[in-house]
Amino acid sequence: MFRRSLTVTCVAATAFAAAAVVHADTLAGFLSRGRLSGQLRAYEFTRDYSTASTVNARAFSLAGLLDYRTAPFLDGFSLGASFYTANALGSRNSDPARVDATLMGPTNAINALGQAFVQYSGHAVLVRLGDQLITTPWAGSSDSRALPATYRGAYGTYSPVAGLTLTAVRILRFKGRTADGFFADNNYYPATWIGDANYGGIGNLPARARAARGTLAFGAAYGRSGLKASAWYYRFYGFARMLYGQVDATLPIHSPLAPFAGVQVVREWGRLNRFAETATRFFGQPGTAVDNLTLGAIAGVKACGASLSVAYDQLRRAGPGALGAGVLISPYTAGYATDPLYTTSMIRGMVELGPGHAWKVRASEAALGERLLLSASYAVYRTDFQGHDSEIYFGVIYRPRGSVKGLTLRNRLGISRGAANPGRGRFIYNRVMVTYAF
Fold it and tell me: What are the DSSP E strand ranges found in 123-199?
């Protein structure tokens, strides 16, 4: 089925490209009207542990992301492709335990065609087929490493009225942030399962688990006059079905102060596929049925470029037979800490920690005409099986102007303490990130 779909996509892409050449005056003219863009990235990640039995680790990566989009043809069609490359430049430690494998996996280099798609855009409709970046709450690019995650499948949106967007997604295959190709897996599969030799995530499924069948999702998002609301349905084939809703609003008060508040809810249900259901455990808790209810809220205030907020999430503990006693299944964010829950921090969140509750205080400031962004947060997690954890976070982003416009300097520092760390000790994670967009 997948090979047939891929063949159809390739044939369609070839036909569209041929039509584009005919439509353009010349092939050179067609290509010259395209758009070339990209990024250069230099990332340095360091891990420091307080437990003597766990060695400290680091990793460096020099990466490039090159994107090309053709000129439109046939009244709205275009072709796009992205080449991704990352290289440690021989800086990896000879001891694998001293390498931060989350940056670019266990290899010295990654080269991948991250995107290759056909797109139509017009008449309030966007349809994209092929390998692509996807942006949805529970399946996105998770772009905080050398390379983003991309997906093979179909993506479409329709905007019938101002502020309203309807979305449909069918994911067939997944290329994780450290993978060099697309595989029928996700972050719950062992990294070496079906040829994906790179770091795959948290790997909770048994080695004989059947390859993933992807995901189907439908969403609706509305935003206008300080109100943002969204509702999503996900079917993670072989894992779970999810309903997700979130509403955030900024109160229309005409003063320097702008209070805001939001709520979110996740409801999951279903059963694991028959190959995984007898051997899978989360937090030491076996189960075959997915049963999760997560509730969250946030409130805060914005003023003069600054903001202050307090957030809370509760992941309800489920009854007997529930997988992980109510764990929240998130195939494309687990281990990445890129889910949309209000209390998720840089290192981890409730998806990685399981049933319990969390609260988080966050402050931010935009200065120098928003060229300098400062943020800090403190989160506490009290979970049924992991115990007590906390995380302090500091972030700095600087975007200079002038001749170096496009340059971004960023540092992210997370200090985690608690049961989820080796030896239940302290874990300091520092990420220096330099990017140049052109």
Answer: 125-132, 150-158, 164-175
What range does the domain containing 176 cover?
2-437
Q: Which two tokens stand for residue 101?
A: 């494998």
- pTM equals 0.91
| Residues sharing a CB contact under 8 Å with residue 153, sequence separation 6 or more, in sequence order | 132, 134, 169, 170, 171, 172, 173, 214
Q: Check: CB of residue 409 under 8 Å from CB of residue 398.
A: yes
Amino acid identity of 123? H
> What is the predicted pLDDT for the residue at 201?
65
Write out the two tokens for 280: 């899978």
What's the count of helices (H) and strands (E) in the chain, helices before strands? 4, 20
CA distance 230 to 266: 12
User: Which contacts qualify for 260-263: CB closer than 8 Å, 24 or more apart?
Assistant: 260/226, 260/298, 260/299, 260/300, 260/301, 260/302, 260/309, 261/297, 261/298, 261/299, 261/300, 262/297, 262/298, 262/299, 262/342, 263/295, 263/296, 263/297, 263/298
| pLDDT greater than 50 at residue 411 | yes
In eight-state DSSP terms, residue 283 is T
326-357: pLDDT as tens digits: 999 999 999 999 999 999 999 999 999 999 99
pLDDT tens digit sequence for 132-161:
999 999 999 999 999 999 999 999 999 999
Q: Which amino acid would we find at residue 24?
A: A
Please state whether beta strands 426-437 and 35-49 pair in parallel, antiparallel, or not at all (unpaired).
Answer: antiparallel
pLDDT at residue 279, rounded to an integer: 64
pLDDT at 66: 98
**Please, what is the end-to-end C-alpha distance for the chain in angstroms?**
39
The CATH number given to whatever domain includes residue 199 is: 2.40.160.10
